[in-house]
Amino acid sequence: MDDFDASRAAARMRDAESSLTGLRERFSVPEDAVYMDGNSLGVHGQDAAHALERALDQWRELGIEGWTEADPPWFEYGERLGDRLADVVGAKPAECVAANSTTVNIHALVGTFIDAADGTEVVVNELDFPTDHYAIRSQLRARGLDPDDHLVVVESDDGRTIEPDAIADAVSDDTAIVFMPSVLYRSGQLLDVEAITDIAHDHDAFAGFDLAHSVGVVDHDLHFDGVDFAVWCSYKYLNAGPGAIGGLYVREEHFDLPPAMAGWWGNADDTQFDLEPEFDPARGAAAFQIGTVSVFAAAPLFGSLDVTEAAGVDSLCERSVALTRYLISLVDERLPECAVGTPREADRRGGHVAVEHPDAGKLSRALRDRGVVVDFRPPNVVRVAPSPYFVGFEDVWLAVDEIRDILDADAHLAYGESEEQVT
Ligand SMILES: Cc1ncc(COP(=O)(O)O)c(C=O)c1O
């Protein structure tokens, strides 16, 4: 980029011009820190905290009456949040519910859709976050299907990305489900959800997605794209806090499928307290809830969704693309010893950038010690996530400048072999 201005002043100017900069005031970004880890855990925000405090107050004031008298009633948390999450992922209200965790939702929905499919294989890829494979393998085993034969793992050509053609080659008439991430957790590649869904449907298979690294930062249109089911967490870009409740989507034409992991919280509301031995599933994604909603893991999401809605997912996505583009340009300009492991096309990028360096582990630790919060993904990736909610262009500049300083001084070499960080 010939006219790229890599100065700090230019970064400041872009922050001053940005309409979303005021969003940051709603978050408690640690002082003197450049927090580039919103793709692992969003920072504490006042909206999420107030919503949680409100739920605690209502517990104190109402006791058990809170299930029906709290505002909103705890009993309805899953569906109420689901209605709002539907707007975030491009679905109809009844197609979404807040429930469980991502991993539990993978168990619940992959199990359900294998049971409904003609085929017996699940197609995944070798760059997936491992919990997806653990859950799917155990669902296959539970059905007497040997995972070594029935889990089809698409390979990557470059160790960073997965190409749609490779997915198409792996899908056959034996496929039950194509289950892919929207964004790869290491490289940040954004996969083409609509194209993958079409590939699955061409073989009468179902298309399911793990949206952990895209919900709240990528403008999804799950219903329009024909996606059959999806799962996600709300502690990353949705900023609902550590261990916050997960979410799921089930396309309306599948509302009649019997949940593979049924529980009383998925029962229809009007008969739930009849406590009959026979399960009477709710009509909609709500049927895939399992046990009592975790009220305090769900309450913050009411507040953090206020922020997402106020900004608009389309604007957040646009800002995310601008921030990652800026980050990639700065890496190209100032860090010749690093490679960018993330696709450069805006429509193939999620919210984070993989900055590759042979000493990525040491570099990540040196950065954290200097207040630049990033994480390391072995063997060579520093993940840098300029969350559009609370990160500005000057923060991106500061992060890259700190990497430059560390590399110039060989300061990272003072660190021993690093361990993987649990984030
Ligand atoms: C793609 C993906 N799926 C799932 C998870 C974790 O799932 P859970 O919320 O159940 O721990 C992660 C965690 O970072 C992830 O990156």
TrEMBL record:
Subunit structure: Homodimer.
Top-tier EC class: hydrolase
One cellular component (GO) term of this entry: cytoplasm
GO biological process, one term: L-tryptophan catabolic process to kynurenine
Classification via Gene3D superfamilies: Aspartate Aminotransferase, domain 1, Type I PLP-dependent aspartate aminotransferase-like (Major domain)
Keywords: Hydrolase, Pyridine nucleotide biosynthesis, Pyridoxal phosphate
Molecular function terms, GO-annotated: kynureninase activity; pyridoxal phosphate binding
Name by which UniProt lists this protein: Kynureninase
Entry-linked Pfam families: DegT_DnrJ_EryC1, KYNU_C
Necessary cofactors: pyridoxal 5'-phosphate
The keyword Acyltransferase is assigned to this record: no
Pathway recorded for this protein: Cofactor biosynthesis; NAD(+) biosynthesis; quinolinate from L-kynurenine: step 2/3; Amino-acid degradation; L-kynurenine degradation; L-alanine and anthranilate from L-kynurenine: step 1/1
Family: Belongs to the kynureninase family.
Reactions that this protein is recorded to catalyse: L-kynurenine + H2O = anthranilate + L-alanine + H(+); 3-hydroxy-L-kynurenine + H2O = 3-hydroxyanthranilate + L-alanine + H(+)
Function: Catalyzes the cleavage of L-kynurenine (L-Kyn) and L-3-hydroxykynurenine (L-3OHKyn) into anthranilic acid (AA) and 3-hydroxyanthranilic acid (3-OHAA), respectively.
Source superkingdom: Archaea
The EC number(s) this enzyme carries: 3.7.1.3
